[in-house]
Amino acid sequence: MSNGKSIYWLFQLIGWGSFAAINMFFAFFFERMADAPSRQLAIARLSLFILSGLAATHLMRSVIQRLNVVKKSLDKQFAYFFFLSVVFSVLPGTLYAMGCLRWEMLGEGDAAFAGRPLLLILRGSFYFFLNTVIWNLVYFVSHFVSASRRQQQDVWRLEEMMKEMTLDNYQFQPEQK
User: Fold this and answer.
1) Is the pTM value of this prediction over 0.70?
2) In a domain, 171, yes or no
3) pLDDT, tens digit, for every residue of 129-161?
4) With 60 as the cut, is the pLDDT of residue 47 above it?
């Protein structure tokens, strides 16, 4: 696996793993996991959320690469950033809402929207939007830092080449008496 891919998967693991840990902590802290059925529901909902989000962010990365978004001008990157965040929030939001409906995993807050799937989708999409914006920020910043580092290394190489050329030029000049 190349270095870029391993860093990508490391960020995915850290991001979604910390998301799961934080959610489990608050579910436990607010007693959403007091008994076995509520623990199973919380873990099942969290698993569905993470799998939907992981699939969406991975697909979004493919779209970003295919469209060469990080090579576009900064204003176009912001436009793509917003558009992709919206699209790739609605997609997992829909998967999550339909999965919760199908497998009867609606939580207390979601049960009020059981008869209105569009509201369930919008509710899920909002949470995915927050995660997607954070994901995009990390993705674009990491690419910006990587590009800046490569550019700095190129500048150092050019400076070194110029110094070598200058030294070579001095070596081939005839000595003056």
Assistant:
1) yes
2) no
3) 999 999 999 999 988 888 889 899 999 999 999
4) yes
CA distances 41 to 36, 45, 104, 117, 128, Å, are: 9, 6, 9, 19, 19
Structure tokens at 144: 């910006």
Distance from C-alpha of 105 to C-alpha of 40, rounded to nearest angstrom: 10
In this structure, is residue 175 part of a structural domain?
no
Cβ contact 85:133 at 8 Å: yes
- Give the number of other Cβ atoms within 10 Å of residue 139's Cβ: 19
What is the Cα–Cα distance from 152 to 34, expressed in whole angstroms? 54
Domain count, the chain: 1
Would you say residue 172 lies in a domain?
no
> How far from the centroid of its chain's Cα atoms is residue 22's Cα?
17
Residue 2 is inside which H or E element, if any?
Answer: none
Query: Which residues span the domain enclosing 18?
Result: 3-166
Q: Quickly tell me which residue has 């929207």 as its tokens.
A: 113
